[in-house]
């Protein structure tokens, strides 16, 4: 029978465990668990391997063998003072710290890898003297930090298996560590009927827990908003690159423009692909033809897809490379290719400041970090209107079309960061822009070959004149502004001209043919970049300054890495139009492309959830999908704006910070209050479903628990009534005893209790205790 004298009288009594020392000293507690030491070592090794995979380093070659050696030595010497070893470890740590600071001040680029190397060195030194569980805890923390550093360095999903492996090892590590904290040791031969704790026996439970944790993590990850990053002004950039010889910025180095039989000529500024001066030719299979000072659009063929760079950006955007101002009849060229400005950075910083644009519209700072995966030309992709660039070379050049040029080609693994002041695209403001263009804009961005000028102008004016008859949808907007005219012409080209399905279906142009004329009047279509060329020339024909801009589409967003994966096939050309006071804005006339390129108002706040919904929506009928799109779109749009507004408060000085803290505290309190009320409602609902006697018994136990006299799970109702008699007044103890007796009689004897009398006694008990408190 249950022995009350050996039981803690109530459940909420503190439990303490003594510390035992095999050496008889109270200051040192040796950790003898081999399982815990092996699991901690596995965590550390996993962290080191994670850094190697994420950063493409080779720390594992020397760090893992030394970690194994240190773990073995530490276990063997765990009961020794190891004073000499401690002094050597201290000296080694000071040397590692000195090397870290030397590397930190010697290289002003990204310091995350240097921090990871320091942690690995400290962990190896530390591993030679870890006698106590607390020392093993330090190693666990170092392994976790290494995993976090690897997560920030990783740009691919290759990090995901390492993360899962770390989690699989961490779960049993925490269990064994907790058992060690509680003083639970393996059973000895003298233990009575106790089973030895074995990790192998707990494998099914760990597997189930692992699956639950991963599933919950994925759910939280899907709903977790993607906030703009880079709140700290330390930006990733590669190690410095030395530039030999003079750099003028006039030469464009494109690996795809190498003349046959002359490998030394790496695509200088005067060369094009095969077929100079608009002659027929074939595009390079690996490099976009448009990244050069001259481009020939009388080429045919297609590129083979390959990843060229990964971009981490606060918002989705068009990664602009360069622009062209002169139309040649079958392509474009940069007429002022030799008129570039060289800008040098200071010797102690990677930061290069660029001149601010002369625009008056509202702008937003957007930070982008580019990591080159495959060789690219020496043209530096960036969002429009870059203000600062953190680049590894001592200088860069800026051309007259606001394109950035590097002294060297962008090679694999090169990393740089750009800060751009991207203007907001306000349709109302742009619609009010005047047509009073500056002289330098008129001189360079209204050029059009005279042979086609009149014919293209007549066709353009005819399209605009027939707007009311041929307008898209049922829009009643008038074409009385430059912005609306550009929008309509771009949409008109999308809907009335087509792209050939076969890369060689569109015939080569002969020597006397003009691309725009053939597109509009002869073939009724062309290849994607041809649409942008045609729109640019049509706008020029009616006096609207425009130019052709080439760059990369945003690419495929990876919600797990937070990066845009950009391929060579994402490169294409669009039309940039000038609006006085507001600057240049792009328009995309290519079919199946959005008319307006991605703007800074669009973010990837709920990207994972959005992609999952897109997958689900593919299986639903269109009306249902449309309804849910409207509902969820409104909710997420409002929620995203609210979150952005809240975080913007902390950038508005002390008043904004104080307002944000007050708002956060108030929201947290209201959330807690709502959660408490929700739990109370659920509790009452659960009690309401119980039989009357069961409900009264549970209410009595809850009341007693609130008094600090809760029932131990191992106690029976009658045992609890007997123990509680010594801690209540005789009247209250009698009521508790009557309820417990009635509950046992009802539950196990099938007797009907006198509920009316019991409830009356219960109410009197609560009233008496309430008056006693007063």
List keywords for this structure.
774 residues; alpha+beta; C8orf32 fold; 7-stranded antiparallel beta sheet; 4-stranded antiparallel beta sheet; 21 helices; 20 strands; 45% helix; disordered N terminus
Q: Can you summarize this structure?
A:
The chain is of the alpha+beta class and 774 residues long.
Walk me through this protein's architecture.
- It is a single chain.
- The protein is of the alpha+beta class and 774 residues long.
- Among the domains are: 34-185 and 201-223, no CATH class; 430-548 and 571-609, C8orf32 fold, CATH 3.10.620; 690-773, no CATH class.
- It has 21 helices and 20 strands.
- A seven-stranded antiparallel beta sheet has the order 9-12-15-10-4-18-17, with no helix packed on it. A four-stranded antiparallel beta sheet has the order 5-16-19-20. The protein has a four-stranded antiparallel beta sheet with strand order 8-13-14-11, with no helix packed on it.
- Strand 19 and strand 20 form a beta hairpin.
- The longest helix is centred in the C-terminal third of the chain and has 36 residues, at 653-688.
């Amino acid at each position: 029978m249950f022995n009350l004298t050996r039981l803690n009288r109530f459940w909420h009594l503190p439990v303490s465990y003594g510390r035992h020392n095999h050496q008889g000293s109270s200051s040192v507690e040796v950790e003898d668990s081999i399982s815990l030491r092996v699991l901690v070592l596995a965590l550390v090794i996993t962290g080191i391997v994670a850094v190697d995979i994420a950063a493409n380093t080779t720390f594992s070659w020397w760090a893992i063998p030394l970690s194994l050696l240190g773990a073995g030595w530490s276990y063997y010497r765990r009961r020794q003072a190891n004073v000499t070893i401690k002094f050597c470890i201290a000296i080694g740590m000071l040397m590692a710290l000195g090397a870290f600071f030397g590397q930190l001040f010697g290289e002003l680029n990204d310091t995350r890898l240097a921090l990871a190397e320091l942690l690995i060195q400290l962990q190896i030194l530390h591993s030679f003297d870890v006698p106590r569980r607390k020392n093993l805890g330090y190693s666990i923390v170092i392994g976790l930090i290494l995993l976090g550093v690897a997560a920030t360095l990783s740009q691919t999903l290759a990090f995901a298996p390492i993360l899962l492996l770390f989690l699989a090892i961490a779960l049993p590590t925490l269990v064994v560590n907790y058992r060690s904290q509680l003083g639970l040791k393996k059973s000895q031969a003298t233990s009575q009927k106790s089973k030895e704790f074995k990790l192998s026996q707990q494998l099914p439970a760990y597997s189930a827990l692992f699956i639950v944790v991963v599933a919950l993590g994925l759910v939280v990850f899907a709903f977790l908003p993607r906030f703009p990053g880079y709140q700290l002004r330390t930006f990733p950039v590669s190690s410095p690159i030395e530039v030999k010889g003079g750099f003028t910025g006039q030469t464009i180095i494109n690996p795809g423009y190498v003349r046959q039989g002359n490998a030394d000529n790496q695509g200088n500024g005067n060369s094009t692909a095969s077929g100079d001066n608009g002659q027929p030719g074939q595009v390079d299979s690996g490099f976009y033809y448009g990244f050069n000072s001259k481009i020939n659009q009388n080429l045919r063929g297609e590129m083979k897809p390959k990843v060229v760079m990964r971009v981490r950006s606060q918002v989705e955007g068009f990664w602009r490379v360069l622009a062209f101002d002169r139309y040649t009849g079958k392509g474009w060229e940069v007429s002022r290719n030799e008129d570039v400005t060289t800008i040098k950075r200071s010797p102690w910083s990677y930061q290069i400041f660029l001149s601010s644009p002369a625009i008056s519209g509202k702008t937003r700072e957007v930070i982008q970090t580019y990591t080159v995966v495959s060789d690219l030309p020496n043209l530096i992709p960036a969002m429009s209107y870059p203000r600062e660039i953190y680049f590894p070379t001592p200088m860069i050049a800026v051309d007259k079309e606001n394109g950035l040029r590097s002294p060297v080609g962008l090679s694999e693994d090169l990393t740089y960061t750009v800060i751009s002041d991207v203007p907001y695209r306000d349709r109302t403001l742009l619609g009010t822009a005047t047509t009073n263009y500056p002289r330098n804009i008129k001189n360079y961005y209204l050029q059009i070959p005279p042979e086609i000028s009149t014919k293209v102008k007549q066709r353009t004016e005819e399209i605009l004149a027939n707007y009311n008859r041929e307008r898209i949808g049922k829009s009643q907007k008038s074409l009385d502004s430059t912005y609306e005219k550009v929008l309509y012409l771009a949409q008109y080209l999308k809907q009335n001209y087509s792209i050939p399905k076969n890369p060689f279906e569109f015939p080569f142009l002969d020597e006397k043919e003009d691309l725009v004329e053939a597109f509009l009047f002869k073939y009724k279509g062309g290849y994607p970049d041809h649409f942008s060329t045609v729109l640019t020339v049509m706008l020029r024909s009616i006096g609207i300054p425009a130019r052709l801009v080439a760059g990369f589409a945003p690419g495929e967003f990876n919600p797990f890495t937070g990066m845009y994966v950009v391929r060579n096939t994402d490169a294409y050309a669009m039309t940039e139009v000038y609006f006085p006071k507001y600057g240049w804005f792009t328009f995309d006339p290519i079919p199946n492309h959005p008319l307006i390129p991605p703007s800074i108002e669009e973010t990837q706040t709920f990207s994972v959830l959005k992609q999952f919904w897109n997958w689900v929506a593919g299986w639903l009928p269109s009306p249902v999908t449309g309804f849910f799109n409207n509902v969820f779109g409104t909710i997420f749009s409002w929620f995203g704006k609210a979150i952005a507004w809240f975080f913007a408060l902390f950038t508005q000085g002390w008043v904004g910070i104080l307002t944000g803290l007050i708002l956060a505290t108030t929201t947290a309190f209201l959330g807690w209050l709502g959660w408490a009320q929700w739990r109370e409602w659920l509790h009452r609902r659960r009690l309401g479903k119980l039989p009357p006697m069961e409900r009264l018994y549970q209410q009595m136990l809850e009341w007693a628990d609130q008094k600090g006299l809760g029932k131990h799970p191992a106690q029976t109702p009658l045992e609890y009534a007997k123990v509680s008699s010594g801690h209540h007044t005789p009247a209250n103890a009698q009521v508790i005893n009557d309820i417990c007796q009635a509950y046992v009689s009802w539950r196990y004897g099938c007797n009907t209790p006198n509920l009316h009398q019991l409830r009356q006694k219960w109410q009197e008990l609560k009233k008496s205790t309430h008056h006693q408190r007063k």
